[in-house]
Amino acid sequence: MFRGMLIEKDEQGYRAAVKDIDESALPEGDVTVNVQYSTLNYKDGLAITGKGPVVRQFPMVPGIDLVGVVAQSDSNKFVVGDTVLLNGFGVGEVHCGGLAQKARLKSDWLIKLPKAFSARQTMAIGTAGYTAMLCVIALEKNGVTPDKGEILVTGANGGVGSFAIAILAKLGYQVVASTGRADQVDYLKGLGAKEVIDRQLLSEPGRPLAKERWAGAVDSVGSHTLANICASIKYGGTVAACGLAQGMDLPATVMPFILRGVTLAGIDSVMRPISDREEAWQRLGEIFANPSEQAMFDNISTEINLNGVIQAAEELMAGKIRGRIVVDVNG
Ligand code: NDP
Fold first, then answer.
1. In angstroms, rounded to a whole number, what is the distance separating the alpha carbons of residues 230 and 160?
2. Does domain 2-116+295-328 sit in CATH 3.30.300.30?
3. Which of 129, 229, 233, 257 has its CA 20 to 30 A from that of 3?
C-alpha cells in the first residue's frame, strides 16, 4: 500500500481525497518510481476541484509532474536507483500521476534528472517552468531577440508567468508583467520585471489593431487578453500562447497576422517530444546555473504535503496562489 490523492467519480459524485492505495491498482508501465515530489499546476487544480474535464478515467491519481527514484525497471533506458522526471504525457489525466508515493510509468515518458537541479528544484520549476522555457525558445526561434524591445508576460503571478519573467530577465530581455494583483509588484520586480501593468488593460474586448508596443509576448491567459496582445505586437513579432486562465476563446481578427506579419506560436508541453524536453531542461539548467540564481526558486515556490493539496487546489483556482506549489508526497 502507498498513500496518494485519489479522484473518484460515481453515483456519489466527483470527489478527491488522500487514501491508502494498493500497489495492484497501479496502471501498466515498464518503470515503477518511488515518487519524491510532485507539484500543483493549473491543470491539477482543475482536476482536483472538478472545475474542468481534465480527468478522463476513474479512479485517477492526479499530478501531471513528478520526480522520483526508479524502484523497478523493465526498460533498458533506466536502472533501479536512477532519479527520473516526468512532465505531462497524459499522466494525471488518463494514467495515474505524481500526487502519490508510487507511480508506474512508461519509460518513453521519462527523462533523467537534469544535472543542474536537485529533485525538489525540478518540481519548483515543474510543467509551468518547463512550459515557460518552451515559450521563450519559441520567441527565440522566431527571431525575437532582446534588442527587439519589450516582452509582455501575462498571468504574471502564476507558475508559467513567474518563470517566464525570470527566464526572460536572465536572458537580458526587458519584461513587462501583466497581473491582477497590484500588491505583488515587488515580487514581480524581484523576478526581473522592469514594469508591471494591470491585467484589466488587456482583458476587455479591444480593437483589431492597436498601437504597436510588444516585440513578443508569453501568454497564459487566452481570450480577449490574447486578442489584445496580438493587436499590439510590433511588426514581425511573436506571441507564444500556452494558456487559458481567462478563457479558451480567442475573439481576434486576422489583421495583426496579415498586416503586421505577427506570429502566433502555439505551445503544448504535454505531448512534446523527448528531444524538445531535454533541450528545454538543458536551457533551464544553463540559465539557472548558479546556486544564487536557484535561490529564486524558494521565492517562487511553496512546499506542502499531500494533506494540503485539496485546499491549495481550491486556492489556485481562486487565483490566490503565487508562483508554484511543490508537494512532498512523503511529508
Ligand atoms: P496559475 O494558476 O499558477 O497561474 C494563472 C495566472 O493567470 C494567475 O496567477 C493569474 O495571474 C492569471 N489569471 C487567473 N485568472 C485570470 C483571469 N480571469 N484573467 C486574466 N488573468 C487571470 O497557472 P499556471 O501558470 O500553472 O498555468 C497558466 C495557464 O497555462 C493555464 O491556463 C494552464 O492550463 C496553461 N498551461 C498550459 C500548458 C501547455 O502545455 N500549453 C502547460 C502549463 C500551463 P495574476 O494574478 O498575476 O493576474
1. 19
2. no
3. 129
Contact between 329 and 6 under an 8 Å Cβ cutoff? The reply is no
Give the model confidence (pLDDT) of 267-317 as tens digits.
999 999 999 999 999 999 999 999 888 999 989 999 999 999 999 999 999
pLDDT, tens only, 131-176? 999 999 999 999 999 999 999 999 999 999 999 999 999 999 999 9
Please give the model's pTM, rounded to 2 decimal places.
0.97
Residue nearest to atom 23 of ligand 1 (CA): 42
On whether the CB atoms of residues 38 and 18 are closer than 8 A, the answer is no
Ramachandran area for residue 189 (φ above 0: left; ψ -120 to 50: alpha; else beta): alpha
Measured by CA distance, the residue closest to atom 1 of ligand 1 is 158
What are the start-end ranges of the H helices in 72-176?
A: 119-141, 159-170
Q: Where are the beta strands (DSSP E) in the chain?
A: 2-10, 13-21, 31-40, 65-73, 83-87, 102-105, 111-112, 151-153, 175-179, 193-198, 214-219, 233-241, 263-266, 301-305, 324-328
* Omega within 30 of 0 (cis) for the link into 27: no
Domain boundaries, the chain: 2-116+295-328, 127-266
202, 229 contact by CB (below 8 A): yes
- What's the CATH architecture for 127-266? 3-Layer(aba) Sandwich (3.40)
